Each structure stands twice: as C-alpha cells, then as structure tokens.
Amino acid sequence: xxxxxxxxxxxxxxxxxxxxxxxxxxxxxxxxxxxxxxxxxxxxxxxxxxxxxxxxxxxxxxxxxxxxxxxxxxxxxxxxxxxxxxxxxxxxxxxxxxxxxxxxxxxxxxxxxxxxxxxxxxxxxxxxxxxxxxxxxxxxxxxxxxxxxxxxxxxxxxxxxxxxxxxxxxxxxxxxxxxxxxxxxxxxxxxxxxxxxx
Length: 198
Prior knowledge:
Blueprint lengths: L16 H5 L5 H8 L9 H9 L6 H10 L5 H4 L9 H16 L20 H15 L12 H5 L12 E3 L4 E3 H4 L18
Antiparallel strand pairs: 1-2
C-alpha cells in the first residue's frame, strides 16, 4: 500500500511547524518543498511523487522535479536509468509526471520556473538534450521507453514571481521564517512590512 505523506513527515525544524502548515499545502508551499529536498535521502522519490500527485501541484513544480531528477533519461533508457538512483522509484516518478502532464492533471499553471534552475535545465535546452540522447544512445531510432512530456516542456511559463509563504528552504529543510530568524533579518526574506534596520 502506497504511503500517503503529510507535510509534517518531511518538513521540520520548528516543533510546531506541522500544526501551522498541515492542511495548507498550496502550490507555493509544494514548490518550496520540491526545491528543498535532499536527493540523497531514501524517502525523496516518494515525497516528490506525493507532491506530483497533489491537486495543488503546479505545472512549473512538476517541471522542476522532472528536470532536477534527470527524469528525461527514462525516455531513452527506460526503467534502467539512472543506475545511481533507486530505479523503480525514479521510474514511477517520471511516469507519474509524464502521464499527468499529458492528461491535463496540472490545471494549475500559474507559477514561473524556479530561478534556481540553470540555463541548461530550461525547456528548450532540455528538449535539445532529449533529441541528442536519442541520436547518441539509440543511434537515431526514436524507440524510447517513456513518452516525451510535450505539455510539460512546451508550456509558456510566466516569469518567476516571489510569493511570500512564510517559509523558506535551505539545504536541510523547510523552515518557518519568522520563527527561525531574528526580526531584524526578516527583510532579507521579503517578510511583508519588514524593513532593513528594524
């Protein structure tokens, strides 16, 4: 039986964070979490798949997960790639995002692509890499194992806009800004009404 994740399972730092965040996993929070996960953690793929299955998951979040996990490699390697990752979980995540993006599941498509994505991780570059992968690894034969998620790649994403959620991500977790940082530093995290030097 697949596990259902609640945000308290994987966001921590403040002991009362679960009570504050549970039940409000909106598209902004899900995006924060997707870019905060540690890819080396054993639960990461299950967590990201849970995010990708949420009604509030934005298309841009699904794209971010897809490209950060190199899930496009499954298009020409099938379930055998990547060899360094838990293949069954990586394959399941790639399949979930591909099928849902092509079936119109991600009706929320209002977020821009996260600024942490590098130039080579942007849609046009990704599509070029997929084409190169076919040529290099399959000698030009388009007989991949997973469909190209055209909707995910070809969507006209808006410009990134910062949306204050009250939380921020670092390399370890998602944290409550106003509880984790002293008030005189809130302005660095764009807390509404906070000004430098106050």
